[in-house]
Amino acid sequence: MQVFKTFFKIAKRHITSAIIYGIIFVTICVAMTKSAPKENEANFTASSIRICVFDNDNTVSSKALIKYLGKYHELTTDLKDVDDSFLQDSLYYTKFQYILTINKGYEDGILNSDAKNVVSHSTLINNMSTVYASQQIDRYISAVRMYLAGGFSLEEALDKSEILYDSKDYITAEDFNGNTKDSNDAFYFFQYFPYIIMSILIMCMSPILISYNTLDVKRRIGCSALKSTSFSMQLFFASIIYSIGAWLVFMTACMIIFTPAAFFTKTCLLAVANSFVFLLFSLTVTLLISNYNLKEESSLSMISNILGLGMAFLCGIFVPQWYLGEKVLSIARFLPAYWYIKNNNMLAGFSSEAMSYNTYFTCIGIQLMFSAAILVIFLVTSRRQKSE
Fold it and tell me: Where are the alpha helices (DSSP H) in the chain?
């Protein structure tokens, strides 16, 4: 266990920088969490817009949607037999700011849990007002579907969904038995976790691992009686313990800041498991980086910023996923942080996607696949370097 003990002896020499980085990042994370827009705060005033509605379904559900939108916006529902050029001109001259079409089969789609393409819309430009209108519609449809899934009749689901977001304190979550619970701000903490844990491991653990990759150290280890397999396993387990230790520090900080009652809930513990899976990916990336003898701290800082900030902006950590374009999201799907954030948004209710264990474990599995792929690359490059 000589390598294992030496790892932590070297870690003690870097403990000061690790503590500084930890304090800085915890402070940043808490600051971002506290300054993040809470759902129960009026951070902006939603403005009413002019919406033209075409109801091609003409059912109780479609009329309920029109009634819901009529509470917030100025609606026009009596246009008949108009062509596309008229609608384009209406948008261009701002007679209407939003044209909503309730497609045929809207009610059947909601009842059959297939709400894709039940509505469509056209706008001239996507400003905050039109984006908010789209979110209102998605949020309403999701609410109806969730009440239906909870066993309510269609009429009850429509009535409850219409008034669900009327009060200012609508963020109190209500289960289908009528029980309520307060929102969990800890999910904002988990939102920024990927950027922080990756930066911590790259900046604090990589220097320890790189110290084993110097030519003199490699030669001494090669001449010793220590087997190569034993050396690798000891170093690997030491890295795991170091990573889990850093993860536990952040989880403990989260529990203290947001109270144990909020931390030890079912959804929050699922978020904890999600963060642990992303920790494994961060660990494998750090191991791969440490395979290369990067002596300059500026090199590690550059890699940390590229990976951390790159995923933070592309995957929805700093900018919510629903504000990102489809092309950006298409690229982000090839990054594990996208699937981490997708899970966190679903658990916290930040997105319009209803909680699904199938989706949750799919995202977990994809993150593990990323970790396995990076681990294979690490093992291949490590063996090639040893043979050289």
Answer: 2-13, 15-35, 60-70, 84-92, 106-111, 128-149, 154-163, 186-191, 193-200, 206-210, 215-223, 228-258, 260-263, 266-290, 297-314, 326-332, 336-348, 357-387
The tens digit of pLDDT for each residue in 221-238 reads 667 666 767 777 888 888
pLDDT for 21 beyond 50: yes
Tens of pLDDT, residue by residue over 371-386, are 999 999 988 887 776 6
Q: What pTM, to 2 d.p., does this model score?
A: 0.64
The more confident residue out of 305 and 175 is 305
- End-to-end CA distance of the chain: give it in Å, rounded: 26
CA 289 to chain CA centroid, nearest Å: 25
Cβ atoms of 87 and 52 within 8 Å: the answer is yes
Phi, psi of 145 (to 5 degrees): -65, -40
For residue 317, which phi and psi values (nearest 5 degrees)?
-80, -55
Q: Which amino acid is at 240?
A: I
Mean pLDDT of 133-140: 87
b/e per residue 306-336 (b: at least 16 CB within 10 A): ebbeebbebbbbeeebeebeeebbeebeebb
DSSP conformation letters of 271-290: HHHHHHHHHHHHHHHHHHHH
Phi first, then psi: give them for residue 40, nearest 5 degrees.
-95, 10
* CB 342, CB 363: distance < 8 Å: yes
The residue to which tokens 């090639």 are assigned: 384
Q: What is the pLDDT of residues 102-131, one digit of tens each?
A: 999 898 888 886 667 889 888 877 667 788
Which is nearest to 269 in space by CA: 282, 288, 255?
A: 255
Distance CA 166, CA 245 (A): 44
